[in-house]
Specification:
This is Probable farnesyl diphosphate synthase. By secondary structure, this protein is mainly alpha-helical. The protein has 15 helices and 2 strands. The longest helix is centred in the C-terminal third of the chain and has 28 residues.
Length: 303
């Protein structure tokens, strides 16, 4: 892993933090209730790798896309991500107590505030994308909104979470637990947003159809690899390393490829998917090295 990658990841995270702060600081009429705004800021600021916005920014950079647009689009996808974490951590979902090294939103505030903050974070994401400050190109803004809405909705993240709950046996209808079914669940729940980040960067960079499909293949492979790596870390890493509770997936009956196959076979699949992501970038030169490093980071990360 190159030092340049870690430096760039941290640099983009800092830039995204600045954009998020600016978004929260925009005055509204009527103003956001102080407790709600405080909870939104608690959820969104001061933590996380910011990998999803990083993928937006670096994919756009690869293609010469406007960086101010990419940063605002990256902030929008991060708002959707943190809203999903706030809701996933609720007692009705995963009932977690620790997120990014601090108490989960519903413990720091309360369940009702956490639900409303998540709702407001999600809508703020789409307001950000639709705002003319993101781009003067209205068609581009509309496409960014469409991509993120699709990835976050019933055929994406929200639908994947429903399948995840079904697999836990929460309802009368239990989800199938075959490897293809689990892979589909994870592609919806986790992979869709990661792949969307790459797609958004490609739109900002005005990729032609062949390049767009190439980058989509990269994003899908990276998204699948990310979830397997996350499931392995749930077994092997400590709570202090991850900043969240570990070892809970098996106890909940979570549908994971690690649970179906064991760590050794899951790690082999992780390596295969990482290889697929790298192969997708074969037509690019050194200008895509940061995206290559992102794929390796996804496989090798310890948090």
């Amino acid at each position: 892993m190159t030092v340049d990658f870690h430096h760039r990841l941290a640099s983009v995270a800092s830039e995204i933090e600045d954009v998020l702060v600016a978004i929260f600081d925009v005055a509204t009429d009527p103003p956001v209730p102080p407790r709600l705004l405080s909870a939104m800021r608690y959820a969104a600021l001061g933590g996380g790798k910011r990998l999803r916005p990083f993928l937006v920014v670096e994919t756009a950079r690869l293609l010469g896309g406007d960086q101010a647009t990419a940063l605002r689009a990256g902030a929008a996808i991060e708002l959707v991500h943190v809203y999903s974490l706030a809701h996933d951590d609720l007692p009705a979902m995963d009932d977690d107590e620790l997120r990014r090294g601090k108490p989960t939103l519903h413990l720091a505030y309360d369940e009702a505030t956490a639900i409303l903050a998540g709702d407001a974070l999600q809508t703020l994401a789409f307001e950000t994308l639709a705002d003319g400050a993101t781009s003067l190109d209205a068609a581009m803004r509309a496409e960014l909104v469409r991509l993120l809405a699709r990835a976050a909705g019933g055929a994406g993240m929200a639908g994947g979470q429903m399948l995840d709950l079904e697999a836990e046996g929460r309802f009368e209808q239990t989800a199938e637990l075959s490897a293809p079914a689990v892979a589909k669940l994870q592609a919806m729940k986790t992979g869709a947003i990661l792949s969307c980040a790459v797609e958004m960067g490609a739109v900002i960079g005005r990729a032609d159809a062949p390049v767009y499909q190439t980058l989509l293949s990269y994003g899908r492979a990276l998204g699948a690899a990310f979830q397997i790596a996350d499931d392995i870390l749930d077994i092997e890493a400590s709570s202090a390393e991850l900043g969240k509770a570990t070892g809970k997936d098996a106890g909940r009956g979570k549908a994971t490829l690690v649970g179906l196959w064991g760590v050794e076979k899951a790690r082999a699949e992780l390596e295969r998917l990482t290889g697929d992501a790298l192969a997708a970038l074969a037509g690019f030169g050194a200008e895509a090295d940061i995206l290559r490093a992102a794929a390796r980071f996804t496989a090798d990360r310890r948090k």
